[in-house]
Amino acid sequence: MTGPDSAAPSGRTILRLASSALIVLVAEPLYLMEDLAVVGRLGAVALAALGVGSLILGVVSTQLTFLSYGTTARSARMFGRGDRRAAIAEGVAASWLAIGVGVVIAVVMTVIAPWVVGVIAPGDGVDSEAVGWLRIAVCGVPLILLSMAGNGWMRGVQDTRRPVVFVVIGLGLSAVLCPVLVHGLLGAPAMGLHGSAVANVAGQSVAGLLFARQVVVAARRSAPEEPWTELLAPRRRIITAQLSMARDLVVRSLSFQVCFLSAAAVAARFGVASLAAHQVVLQLWNFVSLVLDALAIAAQSLVGAALGARAIGAAGVVARRVTVVSIGVAVAVAAVFAVARTPMGRIFTDDTDVLAALDTPWWFLIGMLPVAGVVFALDGVLLGSGDAAYLRTTTVASALIGFLPTIWLSLVFDWGLAGIWTGLALFMICRLAALSARMAGGRWTLVEIR
């Protein structure tokens, strides 16, 4: 059964899902900016400690995004089949997995926090402050993962409004509590840096519980005449299947981490100005990635649902429409970056050496953006089809073939930032070739999610 093109979701539906995903994606970075500003008033030691602690927590959380992306793909497939109970069961299994993995991480990180922090942080009190912050913050990891699981499930069943509400409520609470607890406002005790961690845990806990509650409500409503509590029991078969997809997504995520950490390490060898310029352009890349990732998430949900309904034609139409929109957004951003190169650079720094060093990575970024528009869209399509194993293999291969040899050669032959960003560009081009080949072959529509 191929399904007519008319069954494909409209551009308006794609943008609705993408805008919801974008709000959820940007909410946490915006809160982290406020957190930095509040803690920054405590001095350099506290600010550095927050930077170290949040970096470690962020790396841990990033490796567990399979709870969102994997759950979206699986629940969307069940949603498309019209099997509501199976879709809910995916959300339930992901929630149990989030709790189990989260508790283990919280316990382990509490024990090894001094060692992990010691690898990154200098002395002068930064290490002890970072350990204190991290030991409080990791208590919220099970709730953070519950939010990921719930958000992934709700994307899969195309519930776009509630995830935004839950995330805004949770991070809004953190945003209010952060200055109150850090600086002792409104009669609260002045907890200093530890207040930032407590605010973080409080907000994440509220958001996580709201997502978990929604899973329970959905289970109860799915079978009002039956013992719906059975749906809330952990199911080994589903959890095992989710872990199988998780393995592929974690390896894929680690490939990204290795590439960008290697880029930073090599940039640092070319001097302070080169490292600063690299980080500025990398932050712009991360910003654009959030926008393109929102479109990819919309593709995940809609492609998964279409394939679940065996509407192959509709899935193909979604893939084409999302890709066109993603390219359009990427080209528009690239044009803005090209026209506003000088004033935008001065927003970040007035150091003449850094401004001079910005030119090379800046133009590489502009050239990479149209390629990224295609890559992010097709990434979302294949994630929606459940083709995680192919994404894992090709991402690792792209890093080994395109990126890592180029970046280390750039260090040996002193190619500077041009060598680093050539490596990043080759990484994207290799991924584009692999994704395009998969789409052209049509095998992505045949992947079974069990």
TrEMBL record:
Main location per UniProt? membrane
InterPro entries to which the protein is assigned, alphabetical: DinF-like, MATE_fam
Membrane topology label: Multi-pass membrane protein
Q: Which domain of life is it from?
A: Bacteria
State which residue ranges cross the membrane: 14-32, 44-67, 88-121, 133-153, 165-186, 192-212, 249-272, 284-309, 321-340, 360-382, 389-409, 415-434
Which keywords does UniProt give here? Membrane, Transmembrane, Transmembrane helix
The answer to whether UniProt assigns keyword tRNA-binding to this entry is no
A single GO cellular-component term from the record reads: plasma membrane
GO molecular function term, any single one: antiporter activity
The signal peptide stretch is none
* Compartment list: Membrane
Pfam families named in the record: MatE (PF01554)
Which family does the record claim for this protein?
Belongs to the multi antimicrobial extrusion (MATE) (TC 2.A.66.1) family.
State the name under which the record lists this protein: MATE family efflux transporter
